[in-house]
């Protein structure tokens, strides 16, 4: 009698573990996150402020970078070209320059060097937007669809082909 009960308990326990693992994976990969959940307001490098949720209804590419990042320098011209190509279709590219180990002047130099025309916000250790988005590596690109849902996050430099493909997903 003890063996069937023990077997039943083990089977139920194993089933719960498997369910929890798969449910956890589904939750991490499939649950849409609304931009209002991860909303922020930051100062713009050009003056004034920007609030992410003000772009609800438009496709948004949120780009986290630092002025000292080599991959960010490589990716910047592609991002600017994509912004120029798709802004008439409503695309918003919003740069978030993190100056935790740098300066605002270095951020200004980065923007000038790459002739960036899309808005660039300033994140600091005090505002901590990079933490809200779990940015541990730059470039870190977050793609929001028109409904404000995150449809893709990439924590690396994107090739031109990847950037085009991912932008088509949100346009």
TrEMBL record:
A cellular-component GO term for this protein: cell envelope
Organism classification: Bacteria, Pseudomonadati, Atribacterota, Atribacteria, Atribacterales
GO biological process: cytochrome complex assembly
Positions of the Thioredoxin domain: 31-171
Subcellular location: Cell envelope
Species this chain originates from: Candidatus Caldatribacterium californiense
GO MF, one annotated term: oxidoreductase activity
Domain of life: Bacteria
Entry keyword set: Cytochrome c-type biogenesis, Disulfide bond, Redox-active center
Protein name: TlpA family protein disulfide reductase
Keyword Disulfide bond among record annotations: yes
CDD domains, sorted: TlpA_like_family
